[in-house]
Amino acid sequence: MRGGGAAGGPSCSGGAMSGRRVRGRRGTRAGTQTPERPRAEVSGGAPRPSRFCPQCGLAVEPAFRFCPACGGRLPAPPEEQTEPTAPAPGPAATPPSPRAAAARLGPCSPRSPRKPRPGPAAPLPADTVLTDQGGRRWRLVRLLEQGGCGLVYEAQSASGTCPQKQSYSLKLDAKDGRIYNEQNFFQRAAKAGTVEKWKKWHSVPLLGIPNCVGFGLHADSYRFLVFSDLGRSLQSVLSDGLHLLREKAAFQIAIRVLDCLEYIHENEYVHGDITAENIYLNPTDLTQVTLAGYGFAFRYCPGGKHVAWREGSRTPHEGTVEFISLDSHKGTGPSRRSDLESLGYCLLKWLCGILPWSDELAKVKAVMEQKERYRKDARCLLRLCFRQRSIPDALQSYLEQVMTLEYDEKPDYAALRQLFGKPLEKMKASAYDSVDVPVVP
């Protein structure tokens, strides 16, 4: 049931590596001028005769408002014509052939029509007060980061129900942006009680799922989520001048992210956008590693039934182009292997500073072709990235195992964690120690 494979034999000529530095990241610390990382969110096409759930890809009846499989809200159907045009008199028209009808529908006919995503939300001034659905008020202190998936503020409680001096992270975006998908994820799969039960059942001392303490609408154009303080994104830490991670830190973060992925995968979702911009470190407590940014979360297993691999069922190339999986490039719903593939690309970037396609991010098809080329030869990809440096055995084994997973196959999370745990043991370190990264507040 594998979805896609390498189109041809891999090449390790070395020409893919130019030594140029990767362009800027998508999210930036407030006040910087770093360019935004290319993201692809191609919408649309002409109306289709049938509809599909944008969450699970299931074909649904035109009159349905909610998907019967995953329960997700469906986009509104196109408005019907109230005054249909009468056919011209004359001989009966010949029905068009299936090929002609398909040509009119365009190359993306398997996808349902989608409304264009709203543009980025305009920042709000400091001291703006927002009221969530529970009636609690939150005051914006300062803008921390902004990018393709919204604005992140430091916030404080402006009501008597929370400690006044405690800091929170408030994420703000356009009302109908991807933050709506993120809100649904937290309401459905990441309630605080569910996370705590998971930690106890699996004997995990720390689990980096954000604690969403409130959500709401503001000025009828913004949607916001409030979290316990997330800290700083790993990307912002790397951009401070660190650039690369040591193996110890990279393996610690990999294990912590694998813990989070196992949790969300067991709760029917995949993350869909694993990047350093969505991983947060707490400068005051470096044992805290949080996986945030669920705007591209996808319910891959609604009701316990894995969605089928269907190329073109979703918008292709969704997410951060540098790190998304081949499944996402091809427009099929991401699955568990997709998140693990993305984490592998992240580890390569953190340890080497560049990927073979890092200088071609505007050419999304070229990026996809390179990922497909190296899928069956992880060793070739590693040699291109590490060049003359020693390749970590743990990372090679991880990539080889992940790249051979079937679309609907359940990963062996414990075995994958063990790959990184063994070298950490030799370093006399644990994944749950303070992460070996210098972080300033």
UniProtKB/TrEMBL annotation:
SUPFAM superfamilies for this protein: Protein kinase-like (PK-like)
Domain of life of the source: Eukaryota
Compositionally skewed regions (Low complexity) per UniProt: 99-111
GO terms of molecular function: ATP binding; protein kinase activity
Pro residues bias spans: 86-98
Stretch list, region Disordered: 1-54, 77-129
Sections of the chain in a coiled coil: none
Protein name: VRK serine/threonine kinase 3
Organism encoding this protein: Cyanoderma ruficeps (rufous-capped babbler)
